[in-house]
Amino acid sequence: MSIPASSNAFRLRRRPAGRVTDADLEQVTEAIPALGPGQALVRTLYLSLDPSNRIWMSEMRSYMDPVPLDAVMRGLGVGQVVASEREDFPVGSLVLGWTGFQEYAVMDDATDEGPYTLLPAPLPAPLSMFLGALGHTGITAYLGIEDIGKVAAGDTVVISAAAGAVGSIAGQLAKARGARTVGIAGGAAKCRHVVEGLGFDVCVDYKSGDFAQQLADAVPDGVDVNFENVGGTIMDEVLMHLNLGARVVLCGMISQYEASDGKSSWAGQLAIGQLIMRRATMTGYLVLDHVDRFPEAIEHLAGLLGDGRMHSDETVVDGFENALDCMNSLFDGTNTGKLLLRLGDPELPVPGGDA
């Protein structure tokens, strides 16, 4: 394939207030620089859309620094090496890394936010799955269920955002361990998919007028593990049903990520005192702290997928120009499973295998 002279990118021009606009995230066309020693050029094929993207656009206190104004928007992607000055990443290789929101990224260990990973050839699963069920979202679910929640047979596990990228995998992992899984999702169609498509025992619609009663009916014996992705009033309702010694797995708080100042939406949980009353624990965790567990997690997840015991949902949006709308849709609850932006397909032969 021929390499173009320029590449499209999204640069952060200002901190958003609420929804992200094109005044916040501006699409620009920039020249692709010549490669230097130790660099490679990666053509981005898929971009991962995650709630964390919205955190990094703000000045919210986080596990990574805010994206500097005028910088290319931070993001994980999978892509193909199209030019290389590195023996370990030959042309044609498929890779995973911090590509950012740009069509072409220069791989440089001295300046990148983290090292790129060379994907296996041939691929054991579709390329998109390495940003989803076999990537950081699937591994996040695995760690939360196995390590933090310590889910056991007979537990009642409540999972918010159950139709989302992490929640959908977490529920299936809990079910595979013999737990009773209760999902929380928005709308009758999503709740139906969570039960019929993902195998949860029941799913409660948080958009319904009687959500609190639905939840109470769904957990008559209380909650042993709360796998929390949403926070806010939804989490408060779940906390009111904790059993003695329950474990709250604090994976995400997506209801609170759109504050323009990084603070105003953090109103706190009204029912947090239930942790005392029920002698429960609440543990926050990050997948990036457990890189040594990635091979184990991927092997386990791939096994379940290969045996047909786990289903991977993806919502794929085509076209780089749709990145902004795609990001905003994360907070509308419209996507099912992992949300991805597809920029293209591999065009070069993959060393050692096929794309």
Automatic annotation (TrEMBL):
Give UniProt keywords alphabetically: Oxidoreductase
Q: Output the Gene3D superfamilies linked to this UniProt entry.
A: Medium-chain alcohol dehydrogenases, catalytic domain (3.90.180.10), NAD(P)-binding Rossmann-like Domain (3.40.50.720)
> What GO molecular function annotations does the UniProt record carry, in alphabetical order?
oxidoreductase activity, acting on the CH-CH group of donors, NAD or NADP as acceptor
Q: Does the keyword Translocase apply?
A: no
Identify the domain of life: Bacteria
Annotated Enoyl reductase (ER) domain residues = 18-341
Instruction: Identify the EC number(s).
Output: 1.-.-.-
Protein's UniProt keywords contain Oxidoreductase: yes
Pfam families listed in its UniProt record = ADH_N_2 (PF16884), ADH_zinc_N (PF00107)
Cross-referenced InterPro entries, in alphabetical order?
ADH-like_C (IPR013149), ADH_N_2 (IPR041694), ER (IPR020843), GroES-like_sf (IPR011032), MDR_fam (IPR045010), NAD(P)-bd_dom_sf (IPR036291)
Top-level EC class? oxidoreductase
Q: Which CDD domains match?
A: PGDH
Name-wise, this protein is: NADP-dependent oxidoreductase YfmJ
Per the UniProt record, the source organism is Paraconexibacter sp. AEG42_29
